[in-house]
Amino acid sequence: AQSVTQLGSHVSVSEGALVLLRCNYSSSVPPYLFWYVQYPNQGLQLLLKYTTGATLVKGINGFEAEFKKSETSFHLTKPSAHMSDAAEYFCAVSVLDMRFGAGTRLTVKP
Amino acid sequence: DGGITQSPKYLFRKEGQNVTLSCEQNLNHDAMYWYRQDPGQGLRLIYYSQIVNDFQKGDIAEGYSVSREKKESFPLTVTSAQKNPTAFYLCASSTQPGSSGVSYEQYFGPGTRLTVT
User: Fold this and answer.
1) Considering only CB atoms, which residues of chain B are within 8 Å of chain A?
2) What is the structure's pLDDT at B100?
3) Nearest to A66 by CA among B61, A74, B117
4) Are B43 and B92 in contact (CB under 8 A)?
5) How many C-beta atoms lie closer than 10 Å to residue B75's C-beta?
6) So what's the pLDDT on residue B98?
7) Distance (Å) from the C-alpha of residue A87 to the closest C-alpha of chain B?
């Protein structure tokens, strides 16, 4: 069965700094990979997804992620953090069903 | 405007009472899901349905029940048998898995926060 691990339950960055949220997965077959964002008391919103093809995936709000098969990773990055990026971020892996990581809470300091 | 609606946003119940959470979608999706979210635990799957009149238990189905009488609707009942019902509940939907069997992205509703005292 597939699984996903998000390294770091809390990440804090300064406004304008690089955002790096880490996600590693395990799967015996090529998976689909997703990043979702959740603002307080709201549902999850899809940021970006990898299915096949180009390994560097661009999403909404300036985020991108790179699928690295050799490292079984799908880390989320954004070059310059904005205050509005403060939220919880979930990585998910999908084979026959979808599995979510435990989430990483991003704090952005002014 | 296509999307998923969940009602109510906040729900309060006394211990021992059953309560039903509503989930409706107009995305024409075949598959629908219910998740429970607790702080620091991510999302845990309660039930899912891939077609009308059929549903399967997820990882934490005990104390919950569902029905899928219409494609658009997938209500969740939290029964008195659920030992710790206070949580944030999320409903989601997606298209059917592709021919390879891999599931596509899920679209989420705004959630219902249930408090049982």
Assistant:
1) 4, 6, 40-43, 45, 48, 88, 90, 92, 97, 101-111, 113
2) 63
3) A74
4) no
5) 17
6) 65
7) 13
